Amino acid sequence: MTGFQLRRLQITGLNVADAEIEFGPGLNVVSGASDTGKSYLVETIDFMLGGGTPPRQIPESRGYDNARLSIIAHDGRGFELTRALQGGDFLLAELGAPGTAGPVTLGSRHSASTEENISTFLLRLVGLDGKRVRKNAQNELQNLSFRNLAHLVVIDEESIIKKGSPIHTGESTQRTVQASIFKLLLTGQDDSALIAAKKPIIAKAELEAQIALLDQLIADYERELGGSTQDPAGLDGQLERLSASIIQSERALSIERSAFEQQERQRRAAWQTRDEGLARQAEIAGLLERFALLNEHYGSDLDRLEAVSEAGFFFVALDAGTCPLCGAPAGDHRHDGVPHDGDIVALRAACDREIAKIRQLQAELTQAVGDLNAEEAELRTRLEAARLAFREADALVRETLAPALSAARAENSRLLETRSEVRQALSLVERIADLRRKRADAQAALGTAGRISDDRPGLPPASVQAFSASVEELLVAWHFPHEKPIYFDERGQDLVLGSRRRGEQGKGLRALTHAAFSLGLEQTCRNLRLPAIGFVMLDSPLVTFREAEAEEAGLDAGARLEVKQAFYRDLASRIRTDQVIIVENEDPEVGLRGAIVSHIFTKRLDQGRAGFFPIRPAPAIFGAEQQSG
To answer: From CA 40, how far away is CA 336, in angstroms rounded?
Structure first.
């Protein structure tokens, strides 16, 4: 839960006894005769909650210069606020918390640049710190201040009987803010999401500048359009004809491209055949050179083998003799490292076999050379055919197909470019038409630029119903004479009781319905689990409920008394978690005083408490004691 309650108000000064009063949770009643300081008490509490106007000076307040207000938050923390009665900033001290720092200064005004001030401190206790509310019809916002809420919970004797809505203080410049605050309390949602509207003079100047800019743009686009075409109305037909021509052009371009590509493939195939033939021709020439060398080797080998075979024939025919090395007879000697005599016949046979093998290889080589020569001759024929095919294809591509394809591409590009120009011209036509529409809208808006509406977003029906039900519940419990149903009229920002508006009743009835309004708002916030202030202080809700209004309502004297006592009895049993402080001439019945916090100012020294201020002996020449308030 959020909020706080009042616990003690103390007024101090030099050489005077302290004036103080204690409050508790639930119902508190400060009652008694006039001129006992009751109204001064209400003014001082409002002043200690950030009010800018000090309490009015009365004779009994002479010599008092300082005020202390003790409050307790719903989380149990206690605080004491101290302020000079002449005004100025506050001193804040936390009570009963071990190890807390000394008093801190709180500014008396709610300023965005000063975070520590009385308003932000109290709003933090209530759970509404940092909220933003709408302050005018342009949706400009302002930070919520506790002073925006104070008139809803501290209701003085003049405000409680006013004909206007309890939501409003009567200041015309604050009506939008106060309606927004009522919505905030019933919904828990502030207006920070609203986007501020421009002031009428600024909005009109911007519209005029916008119209001038639109006129300039329209003139520029019309000049550009005039350079593109002399017949803007015929652009659609021209675009259709161009589209048909482009289709035909693309079809012709496709045919030309297909013929070109086919002939290009043939040209590449002829060139590839030529390249492959030349490569093979070079390969054959290389083979023939190597084969010629091989054939020479074969001839050299044959000459050597034939020479060996012929030498062996003559060697066998020689006579045997002595060894030319050692002179020993043939066959009877050996020399280290020198082989013995071989078999000449076998050697000749081996030579003959090798000669036959080489001659066979020569024959095969001759056959291979012949095949290569034949292949080379065939290659020359194929190469010549490939050259002819390439020249024919190349000539067809370069002289016929390429120019035709280039011409088809150029025609297609020309048509596409023309279509692009026509589309651009059509875009200019559409842009000009769009700008003319915007100019017409701006011109129309210019006529209403100075008119503003203060329409507010409606309250959720569930919240309105809950609030209306809370007010009716209170009035029924108080035996208040009223028509049904009771509902909150959003347009009038006030209660309607059956067929009569609250403000149309007499003063006494207005005071009681104002009390029901304020208490019902607090009760609704609690029921909806929304931030609530935690206390309500009502000054004189019953004193004006006099005979004239009672007779108007059809009540006799007994019924009038029953309304007043039902008022006290209901609040004594109803108020538990919050606090209600009633300042009234009418005393609660004796049987209730033990269940509530009751202070009765008797105006006499010999009976109970005389008044808020201790009575000081008067100078002898005066002989009377008086308290004002």
So the answer is: 156
CB atoms within 10 A of CB 585: 15
233 C-beta neighbours (distance < 10 Å), count: 8
Peptide bond into 588 cis (omega under 30): no
What pLDDT, in 10s, does the model give residues 32-73?
Answer: 988 899 999 999 999 999 999 999 999 999 999 999 999 999
Residue 84's SS3 state is strand
- What is the CA angle 76-77-78, rounded to 5? 115
Chain segment 161-196, per-residue pLDDT in tens: 999 999 999 888 899 899 999 999 999 999 888 876
Give me the domains of the chain, ranges plus CATH numbers: 4-197+455-601 (3.40.50.300), 232-318+341-446 (1.10.287.1700)
- Report the relative pairing of strands 535-539 and 4-13 from DSSP bridges: unpaired
Half-sphere exposure of 108 (CA within 13 A, CB side): 17
CA-to-CA separations, 379 to 280, 285, 292, 372, 382, in angstroms, rounded: 8, 12, 21, 10, 5
> Distance between CA 456 and CA 139 in Å, rounded?
10
Which residue carries 């004796």 as its tokens? Answer: 590
Mind listing the pLDDT tens digit for each residue in 494-535?
Answer: 999 888 898 888 888 899 999 999 999 999 999 999 999 999
Closest to 589 (Cα-Cα) out of 578, 600, 581, 580 = 600
The 3-class secondary structure across 200-228, one letter per residue, is HHHHHHHHHHHHHHHHHHHHHHHHHHHHH
Q: Which residues contact 320 (CB under 8 A, 6 or more apart)?
A: 329, 330, 331
> Nearest 5 degrees, angle CA 91-CA 97-CA 101?
50
Nearest 5°: phi and psi at 90?
A: -110, 155
